[in-house]
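Lecture notes, unit on protein representations.

Consider one protein chain, 169 amino acids long.
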Amino acid sequence: FVVWRLSAVAGRIDRLHHRIELARASLDAQLLRRARAAEALATSGLLDPASAIVLAQAASHSRNTDPEDAVDRGIVESELSGDLRAVFVDPESVAELRAVPEGEELLTDLAASCRQVTLSRRFLNDGVQAARLLRQGRWVRWFRLAGNAPHPEMFEMDDVAPSAFDALA
């Protein structure tokens, strides 16, 4: 029974680590999608020049950040979220953009990618929390069931989408 239990816990840890890797890859893809959507809107000519420059710079910075540096990436992605909220603070300007056919499509894509970033980050952090909790167990530590796998890290960032995007859901 003890051997079976140890094997089951080790398998669970392995599955959690695999789930975390997949969730991290999904989050990376969603962050890239959000940056591309922001950049597409910034270069569309539909925004005022100041907003377009702010959004284009933040999106470019987001796309060029090293994905392996989680702290720096979290800061850069938080800045993009803040810039999105600053640019789309006024629901009336969002409504004006939605009146243009191309603007509706670009805004819908950006709003969807913002929602996906939030969900992907939450899914990743839930997996990390579950793995950390399991790895704290006495049996896991005594028998080193996690092997040499590094401790999973949460991905912290500000992922709050502009409130004007709520109407696009």
